[in-house]
Design goal:
The protein is mainly β and 361 residues long. It has one helix and 29 strands. It has a single domain, classed as YVTN repeat-like/Quinoprotein amine dehydrogenase (Methylamine Dehydrogenase, Chain H), CATH 2.130.10.10. A five-stranded antiparallel sheet has the order 3-2-1-28-29. A four-stranded antiparallel sheet has the order 4-5-6-7, with no helix packed on it. A four-stranded antiparallel sheet has the order 8-9-10-11, with no helix packed on it.
Length: 361
């Protein structure tokens, strides 16, 4: 009983750190568990919070606020305007978690999805891909009212709608379907451009630069990526990792915030490949070994200092050396590909990352 009381006190203390009224910016990594595609590295049900500025120390577990992640989380995106995280699960459910109110605002089940979703900058609409498992002609995006969670309509795009990215200016929405990248107007909810024959096979992660000139789309049969010219609407380069073609799928691509490097994940090979993105096409630069395999993912802190991924390993992005390990309150190593940076000042959310490694230069 004494141990439980001590733990409860520590939990309350840790929760207060995110709301410290000291005028300083506090940076945290929010990690959803279990990952719907990587249950072996899970740590119970909910969101784990780690202190980025204190060697990624475990801060708290959010599990008693109405969250239901038992079916596995498919994506977790954020909105600074509404200071909320929007999460989707394998059970076709999506919810909105208010970071400042520390509570679930709404959670509902939908007619499709919900995969890695995108949110308008004002939080007015959520676009939920119907899922890589959706093979019918009605696949695409479920449009959800961001305030109430009501399903508004569906935009038919194509089969296997999987990952979606909102451009940092909020003017364009990008959706990956089977070997196709689609560009949409999120206001008019209209398809602006369809770019076929990308990604080699299937539907896999991608990222874009800040000015939305290029998309970097993971390959489905080899470790590498396609470079897509978004203005021309076609793939202009295919880049393979390694001295010889590696017959693994690529799952995870991220630009450093300064757009100097592109990192991709070789999940089977337990490795991250780094490319010099200051030239076109990007050229091989370095390799980073991972402690375990998994679903595959890679991303960076907003300041570009740290790189995290689907494993418990955290790296210094400049030196490529491991500097921390994500561990829960029991010391268990935790891995997930659904993770996002959130910044607080005096209890208010003042910064929000993306689950995708977007260029920010």
């Amino acid at each position: 009983m004494k141990a439980l009381l001590v733990f409860a006190a520590l939990s309350l203390f840790a929760a207060g750190l995110a709301r410290a009224a000291d005028g300083k910016v506090h940076r945290y990594l929010y990690v959803a568990t279990p990952d719907g595609a990587q249950v072996e590295s899970a740590s119970g049900n909910g969101i784990l919070v780690f202190d980025i500025d204190d060697d990624f120390r475990f801060v708290r577990r959010i599990e008693d606020k109405g969250l239901n992640f038992t079916a596995g989380v498919r994506g977790m995106t954020g909105c600074l305007a509404t200071h909320s995280l929007y999460y989707g699960t394998t059970a076709r459910r999506m919810g909105r978690f208010d970071l400042e109110g520390d509570q679930v605002v709404w959670e509902r089940r939908y007619s499709g999805g919900c995969d890695r979703s995108a949110v308008t900058l004002d939080g007015g609409k959520v676009f939920a891909p119907t899922g890589w498992w959706e093979s019918s002609d009605s696949g695409g995006l479920v449009v959800i009212d961001g305030a109430t969670g009501a399903e508004l309509r569906r935009i038919k795009v194509g089969t296997g709608a999987h990952n979606s990215i909102m451009g940092l200016d909020g003017k364009r929405l990008y959706l990956g379907t089977t070997t196709t990248l689609t560009v949409l107007d999120p206001v008019k909810e209209q398809v602006l451009k369809t770019i076929p024959d990308v990604g080699e096979s299937g539907v896999f992660p991608f990222t874009i630069d800040r000015r939305q000139r290029h998309a970097f789309v993971c390959l489905g049969k080899h470790v590498g990526f396609d470079v897509v010219d978004l203005d021309k609407g076609k793939a202009i380069h295919r880049v393979l990792a390694g001295d010889a073609p590696i017959a693994h799928r690529t799952h995870g691509a991220a630009l450093t915030p300064d757009e100097g490097e592109l990192w991709i994940s070789d999940q089977d090979g337990k490795k991250l490949f780094v490319f010099d993105a200051t030239q076109m096409p990007p050229a091989p630069k370095a390799e980073v070994a991972l402690s375990v395999g998994g679903h595959g993912w890679v991303n960076f802190s907003l300041d570009g200092r740290f790189a995290w991924n689907h494993t418990p390993d955290v790296f210094d992005a400049r030196t490529k050396r491991q500097v921390a390990t994500l561990r829960d309150e029991n010391g268990k190593r935790v891995g997930s590909s659904k993770l996002i940076e959130v910044q607080f000042r005096d209890g208010k959310v003042v910064g929000m990352g993306s689950e995708f490694g977007l260029g920010r230069k």
